[in-house]
Amino acid sequence: MSEIFQQALGETIPLLRSVDAGIVRRPKASRRALEELRAAAMKPRDGTAMIWTWERLEEAILGCVKCPHLVASRSKVVFGTGDRNAELMFVGEAPGADEDLQGEPFVGKAGQLLTKIIEAMGFSRAEVFIANVLKCRPDMPPGESGNRKPKPEEMATCLPWLREQIELVRPRALVALGATAAEGLLGETRPLRDIRGSWLDFQGIPVLVTYHPAYLLRNQSITEKRKVWEDMLQVLRKLGKTVSAKQERFFTQPA
Ligand code: SF4
Fold it and tell me: Is the CB–ligand 1 distance for residue 94 below 6 Å?
């Protein structure tokens, strides 16, 4: 036994000396292994939380199977889209049929209206970040089309993903689109008319709750459009943007 040990020692010591002297290159770890190590190092000792990178978060969300009934019915997981360092972030409730097929939030008719609102504010769609509380489309009973509202327990299961996205974006302001998004994000159960237009808080980030664009598609009155626009003017002011006279006048009654 001691002979074998002596032999191993005899082979190892010169190798270690040559590494030290720079004669033999130190073995290189793969990029993925280094990322794993970095993530493990960032993991708190109690193992209850993880500091995420965008790459790891996207991989985790796209592969999430926490809701088996939604995994069975979804076409695509809808991660979110836009500038990952955006100063403004919009949060909806859940993907609909169009979003489920395309894997992108707010691409249906309501999404097109949201894009117009964003552009009227002076941003492009790519300059803000858009995500939903629920990343998978709520399943529908067999043979039924349309979309259903996500259940509170579904939103509670998925909320940690959105929380990590917000943590990475660190926007200066959040806009919650509709009562269900406000419930999922903030636990708000007050009627939308009571919370719309006032600033709330999500982990130190100001949140403004406004109507979902789908509501504006159902209700085309200029009064309701103006309410949403006044909310957006508040957001612009919160971000320190200059509001033009033309922007001020949008959706006011014609003289
Ligand atoms: S809804 Fe959210 S938590 Fe549920 S499976 Fe999809 S990504 Fe996972």
Answer: no
